[in-house]
Specification:
The protein is mainly alpha-helical. It is 54% helix and 4% strand. β1 (64-65) and β2 (73-74) form a beta hairpin.
Length: 99
Amino acid sequence: MNLDAMSKEELIDLKGKVDKALKSVESRRKTEALKAAEAAAKEHGFSLDQLTRGKSGTVSAAKYRNPGNPEQTWTGRGRKPTWFVEALASGTSADDMAI
């Protein structure tokens, strides 16, 4: 392919095709990398989610427990969960839900 012989329009068209192909290659490589990571985690008896959960920052200890479903907890940080807001509205105090 002789780029010097191509017109400006042909070069712009070619550039668009190259950009699209590069995005496609990157997408395929990410998919392949994710599959390889999942396979490696599975080989060691874990899911990828189990290995990466909470890795972006520190994990805070739960401070409150849902009286209606003890499996639901909240650290007291960030947005209040619906169950916490509903419990407060029904007359349950935050101290009553404290762990």
